[in-house]
Amino acid sequence: MAVHEIKHPLIQHKIGLMRESSISSKDFRELASEVGNLLTYEATRELPTETAEIKGWSGDTLSVQQIKGKKITVVPILRAGLGMLDGVLQLIPNAKISVVGLYRDEETLEPVPYFDKVVKDIDIRTALIVDPMLATGGTLIATIDLLKQKGCEQIMGLFLVAAPEGIEAVQNAHPDVEIFTASIDERLNEQGYILPGLGDAGDKIFGTR
Ligand SMILES: O=P(O)(O)OC[C@H]1O[C@H](OP(=O)(O)OP(=O)(O)O)[C@H](O)[C@@H]1O
Ligand SMILES: O=c1cc[nH]c(=O)[nH]1
Ligand SMILES: [Mg+2]
């Protein structure tokens, strides 16, 4: 599995701002969307293009490049993934959206699924999963399981922050999935939170902390 930690200065700067303990929900939300946008730019760098003929402004026929083949479905994981969705859609405005809802049980840290509504033609689309946090990896593994059961064959994931433990778990379960993250942090604490991390991303985005 390919794991890309994106060291772009803009991304590093914005993730640094998000680590400030007193950050407001408004600022956290804006930055989550902005970093989601920048990660999308990086994750789509290798998308294949093909030549198409169009009629240009002067009436001449022009050869231009268009995205080729499989289309994308963006898969925000409820709740916190919604915080990155706007930024992703700014770059892929025609993407279909497949929503999955899972929360992590606070005691067992196991993912608990509670919602899914994915596009019907997911078998011919590339899924772009978005979630701010990849911690133990349980939520991501369950999401990939679900998408594959529905026929999805090509899957990428965008995460603001990822823990080494979670990356390893996902690598073992789904070695074919490609991951893009703004930061691979140090470790998980006893409660399964990422250190140094961002805290509880869902609570910060929705103001429920
Ligand atoms: O890798 P894992 O250990 O599974 O943890 C990561 C998950 O935990 C958080 O969601 P949470 O359960 O807090 O739900 P929320 O988005 O509704 O806050 C986060 O947004 C991920 O979905
Ligand atoms: O650090 C973490 C781990 C899981 N979920 C979060 O929101 N933050
Ligand atoms: Mg949460």
Q: What CATH architecture would you give?
A: 3-Layer(aba) Sandwich
Domain unit count: 1
**Head-to-tail CA distance between termini:** 34 Å
| Main sheet overview | 9 strands, mixed
| Average pLDDT figure | 97
Q: Please tell me how large the radius of gyration is.
A: 18 Å
Kindly provide the name of the CATH class. Answer: Alpha Beta
- Give the strand tally: 13
Helical content stands at 25-40%
Low-confidence spans: pLDDT under 50, at least 5 residues? none
Shape: globular
Q: Count the DSSP helices.
A: 6
Helix and strand sequence: EHHEEEHEEEEEHEHEEEH
- Structure ligands: 1-O-pyrophosphono-5-O-phosphono-alpha-D-ribofuranose, uracil, magnesium ion
Give the helix/strand class.
alpha/beta
Beta-strand proportion: 25-35%
**CATH topology call:** Rossmann fold
Keywords: Allosteric enzyme, Glycosyltransferase, GTP-binding, Magnesium, Nucleotide-binding, Transferase
EC number: 2.4.2.9
Catalytic activity: UMP + diphosphate = 5-phospho-alpha-D-ribose 1-diphosphate + uracil
InterPro entries: PRTase-like, PRTase_dom, Upp_B, UPRT, UPRTase/APRTase
